[in-house]
TrEMBL record:
SMART domains xrefs: EXOIII (SM00479), HELICc2 (SM00491)
Limits of the Helicase ATP-binding domain: 237-503
Entry's EC annotation: 3.1.-.-
Function in brief: 3'-5' exonuclease.
Position of sequence motif DEAH box: 444-447
GO MF annotation list: exonuclease activity; helicase activity
Organism this protein belongs to: Streptococcus caledonicus
Protein name (record): 3'-5' exonuclease DinG
Length: 822
């Protein structure tokens, strides 16, 4: 046994017959690093004396024939041991490689006692913004060459380069940050902390970089400052040229209409097709107008808000020095006070301690403090809930002048552009009418703003979460009466849950009255959300069961059945614009009508006919109303199996999580690889993985209908599992039906059907976002053919792209021909 040399690293990668503890080694790759240089390498196939699975053959490129000629492990064991003995053992997922190699070496009489370092865990800490830490993903992020992934020597070389990048990143961090990190590094796997220790010991105390500042023992990135905004040209084309953008005729017309309508008193509704560049189309003429004050842009989701800030807004900042702020709910931002408090205790959960180290690194890099930047925060939401901002900041705080939320709040008052999302916009205006009063407001994707406005008249809360928070609070409540009241709330919530689980019974008025009585007497932070949910404006209260991949939850919901009018809710603005690809959603109904406007302008631009997209309706599918859900899903699965033979990416859209997850289970039983929302991750993460080609098949619901664009896919097949009608039994559907009837309209033909058409058009537009894209869309719901309203859907969709009604075998042939021809 050699004495350990802390400057020598053995970077090891193994390929094996499986990922289980019973796996056999089939290939070994080793790279020896000394003082940052590769001094030696080793690679060898190994005969496992068992057949490889198809998956391993596909993954590694190895075959049974090739391995039959390879040496047994016993023949290479000594060479491997001699090479790595005395070095620090490094691997990407070290537990697997070290355990497997140690077991095989032990059987040959060699004992592996090397310190073990895991580059996965180090990467999670020192590259905090990534969502996935596979070797391929890290190689892509860092520009590491990895031409033959899943061959041992190629992976070992890439891991060696990754280690060098990690060491460089650690060296770049301030000494104060490294000291804080080392407080928690004993919770890292095996001896992974050795890498940090060695760099820390050799690091000299130096002044902080001018970009950083130390406050309260935390190192933060200094706030970014803006100079004076450059004047934009009155010529739209000139501004496009300065942004290095090509001229688009539809975008030009759209921008002219934005400028023209500015002087009108009434709100302007402007309908323009997808893919014309609406964001620049409204921002450039508004920024060029000297009479326009602050511009507030609200978009449907936080995802689109982030995309806009990283895309169009960032470019406007670079070229014209436009000051802009992204504004979200306080809970999206880190509370530095709460985070510092969490550092004072070392949690027993190693995952929490790893997140603390990760955040210490992230604070040296983030300009926003928006925790959505942390790629894997959703994996341990409980900790991030502990450190999220609540909108309050003590002036005695260490961080009073550097608090992220406070900084955004103050800068938003002075910025030329504020970008927010529909949900937070409504919450903010409710609390502060001055937020938008007298300013220019642009509501992007206005049809979705209407849905958010409706959702705003709702409240919901997880009953289990309420009960857990009440249980945890008992230790902090000393007053006997208060404890009795908490126990009463706990009893009534359990009673509601039990009634619903046993018989589906909804809350009765007596129980709700008792809950309100208890809540009235208690002023505890944990009860604020429950109080809001049961408040008097919400005159309908019910329980719903929400289904996810590995759990179900009971959600208490409430809604106001009074129709919400946006003109009454919004204060007077300088100008308000509503833009969307579809504002007219029926012969008698517009989005403006649904929002409550009577006086408004409505302009519409012709939408280009999509020749690079084809729409098919499968006439051979069974009627969804006449067969079981299970049978219907099997019919879809058979078609997906055939579509995958075309070797094109396939997106399958569902209208319910329950149906999507049941379908995912069928695919798993059939051995069809796929990505499934909620089962394999959330929408944004899965879309990125799908775009990278990690899977040819993606199952999605919710955001995938309207909030996700597939501009990166040159060719895409979209499968719509069923028509996206609203559930007629929900409170919002019944509320809308009553409102429309009172307005002299027919709910189905004037609202539900147009809204379904709108959603279908939105889905069609997701895969045609730029030139040279080819898209095939298949609707599997036969009601499009058999029901009387199907003709109206067909006619509307045919205005956008070519529609064919055929049996599935013919559709399969047509799609193959269509993709080959284009």
């Amino acid at each position: 046994m050699k004495q350990m040399d802390r400057t020598r690293y053995a970077i090891v990668d193994l390929e094996a017959t499986s990922a289980s503890s019973l796996a056999k080694i089939i290939q070994v790759g080793i790279v020896i690093l000394e003082n940052g240089k590769v001094v030696e390498t080793f690679e060898s196939d190994v005969n496992p004396h068992e057949a490889l699975s198809d998956h391993i053959i596909s993954l590694t490129g190895l075959t049974d024939e090739r391995l039959a000629k390879a040496p047994d492990f016993s023949q290479v064991a000594k060479a491997i041991f001699d090479l790595i003995d005395g070095a620090i053992f490094v691997a990407h997922n070290v537990k697997f490689d070290a355990n497997l190699l140690a077991e095989e070496l032990f059987m040959e009489g060699f004992e592996l006692r090397s310190p073990l370092v895991d580059t996965v865990e180090l990467s999670q800490i020192f590259f905090p913004n990534l969502e996935r830490y596979t070797l391929e993903n890290l190689a892509r992020f860092l520009g590491i060459e990895l031409l033959d992934a899943h061959t041992a020597i190629a992976d070992a070389r890439a891991t060696a380069e990754l280690l060098l990048h990690l060491q460089a990143k650690i060296r770049s961090l301030p000494l104060i940050t490294l000291e804080r990190i080392l407080d928690f590094s004993d919770y890292l796997l095996f001896e992974t902390r050795l890498i940090i220790d060695d760099i820390y010991r050799g690091k000299k105390a130096e002044p902080l970089s001018p970009e950083l500042i130390e406050i309260g023992g935390l190192v933060l990135k200094r706030p970014h400052s803006f100079g004076a905004q450059r004047q934009l040209s009155q010529d739209f084309e000139m501004n496009l040229a300065l942004l290095d953008l090509d001229k688009r005729p539809q975008q030009q017309l759209f921008s002219e209409k934005i400028a023209e309508r500015f002087s009108d008193r009434n709100p302007a509704f402007i309908e323009a097709g997808t893919g014309i560049g609406k964001t620049y189309g409204y921002l450039l003429p508004l920024l060029a107008n000297p009479d326009v004050g602050q511009i507030i842009v609200t978009v449907p989701t936080k995802v689109l808000q982030d995309q806009m800030m990283l895309g169009e807004i960032k470019r406007l900042e670079e070229v014209f020095n436009v000051s802009a702020q992204s504004l979200k709910s306080p809970k999206n931002y880190i509370s530095l006070d709460k985070f510092l408090e969490s550092l004072m205790t070392v949690d027993q959960n190693p995952v929490v301690n790893r997140y603390k180290m990760q955040i210490l690194v992230w604070l040296c890099e983030t300009e926003t403090g928006d925790m959505d930047e942390i790629g894997q925060k959703q994996r341990f939401g409980a900790y991030f809930s502990r450190i999220q901002h609540d909108g309050d900041l003590s002036r005695r705080s260490f961080f009073a002048d550097y608090d992220f939320w406070e900084r955004h709040y103050q800068l938003a008052k002075m910025s030329k552009i504020i970008v927010t999302n529909h949900a937070y916009f409504l919450t903010r205006v409710e609390a502060d009418k001055n937020f938008v009063a007298g300013k220019t407001l642009v509501v992007d994707e206005a049809q979705r703003f209407f849905l958010n406005l409706e959702a705003f008249s709702h409240r919901s809360g997880n009953i289990k979460t309420f009960l857990e928070e009440i249980e945890q609070s008992f230790n902090d409540v000393q007053n006997t009466l208060h404890r009795r009241l908490l126990e009463g709330i706990q009893f009534e919530l359990n009673h509601l849950s039990q009634q619903f689980s046993d018989s589906g019974k909804q809350p009765d008025e007596d129980t709700l009255a008792q809950l309100r009585l208890y809540l009235k007497e208690l002023e505890l932070p944990i009860l604020v959300e429950l109080k809001k949910l049961l408040d008097k404006p919400f005159n309908q209260i019910w329980i719903e069961e929400e289904v996810f991949s590995d759990y179900r939850r009971l959600v208490l919901k409430s809604a106001s059945l009074d129709f919400m009018s946006l003109p009454k809710f919004l204060p007077e603005t300088q100008k308000t614009y509503f833009t969307s690809a579809t504002l007219q959603i029926g012969h008698h109904v517009t989005v403006a009508d649904l929002l409550g406007y009577e006086d408004y302008s409505l302009d519409s631009f012709s939408k280009p006919y999509e020749v690079s997209q084809k729409l098919f309706v499968d006439s051979s599918m069974p009627d969804i109303m006449e067969v079981s859900t299970r049978r219907y899903l099997y019919e879809i699965a058979e078609r997906i199996k055939d579509l995958l033979l075309l070797d094109k990416p396939v997106l399958v859209l569902f209208i319910s999580n329950k149906m999507m997850l049941a379908f995912s289970q069928i695919l798993e039983e059939w051995g069809i690889a796929h990505l499934c929302q909620h089962r394999n991750g959330e929408a944004t993460s899965l879309k990125k993985r799908f775009d990278r080609g990690e899977s040819q098949l993606l199952l999605g619901a919710g955001a995938f209908w309207e909030g996700m664009d597939f501009a990166n896919q040159n060719q895409l097949i979209t499968v719509i599992s069923r028509l996206p009608f609203d559930n007629p039994q929900t409170a919002i559907s019944q509320k809308m039906d009553n409102y429309l009837r009172e307005s002299g309209k027919e709910p189905f033909y004037d609202y539900h059907l147009p809204l379904t058409i709108l959603r279908l058009k939105q889905a069609l537009g997701r895969s045609i976002r730029r030139k040279n894209q080819t898209s095939a869309v298949i609707i599997l719901d036969k009601r499009l053919v058999t029901k009387s309203y199907g003709q109206e859907i067909q006619e509307s969709l045919s205005e956008q792209t070519e529609l064919q009604i055929q049996s599935f075998p013919k559709i399969l042939t047509e799609i193959g021909y269509f993709f080959d021809k284009v």
